[in-house]
Amino acid sequence: MYNNISGFKTLGCDGLKDNMKRSTINFTDVKGGRASYRHTTIVEGQREDEEFYVAELKAQLLAEAPKPKDAAYPTLAEHRACKEHVKSTYCALVGDNVRYMRNALNSVASGTFAFLFSLGCFTHFLDMLCEDLTGISKYTRYQKVPYSCG
Predict the structure, then answer these.
(1) Count of the separate structural domains present in the chain
(2) What superkingdom does the record give (predicted)?
């Protein structure tokens, strides 16, 4: 899908509950204004915290990188090849604005993959900003609104 679009991709992730009330994480790639589905992780028996998301983000970044012959003991050249693949493919990470997600995004973008930058989801940010500015909470069922015919 992205072969004819120049530039880097952004890896995005968003957590939600599916129809069976399981926690899921959807991953997307975005490039040139086009988003595509990448992967879904169903979270069962694990705590969704910073450590969990760091591992998931790294796994997605490295999913298409060259695989070392022995994953437990990659050579320095194999390690560099994986890192170079990510560096030549991705420029940014984006995710929810909850603390553990922001910490995970920042951790990945400041560690092994320090060439990446991370940011919170603009759509989630805009939703929170609108709620703050208008005083409307998504948990409020009914809001009294002044009405004037004048």
Answers:
(1) 1
(2) Eukaryota
Residue 92 covered by a domain:
yes
pLDDT tens for each residue of 87-128: 999 999 999 888 888 899 999 999 889 999 998 877 777 777
Domain containing residue 105: 9-134
Pairwise CA distance, residues 73 & 82, whole Å: 13
Q: Is residue 149 part of a domain?
A: no
Can you give the pTM of this predicted structure?
0.78
CATH of the domain at 68: 3.30.420
Q: Is residue 145 part of a domain?
A: no
Q: In Å, what is the CA distance from 19 to each residue of 24, 43, 47, 105, 139?
A: 10, 14, 20, 27, 20
What b/e sequence results for 118-147 when a residue is b if at least 16 CB atoms lie within 10 Å of its CB, and e otherwise?
A: bbbbeebeeeeeeeeeeeeeeeeeeeeeee
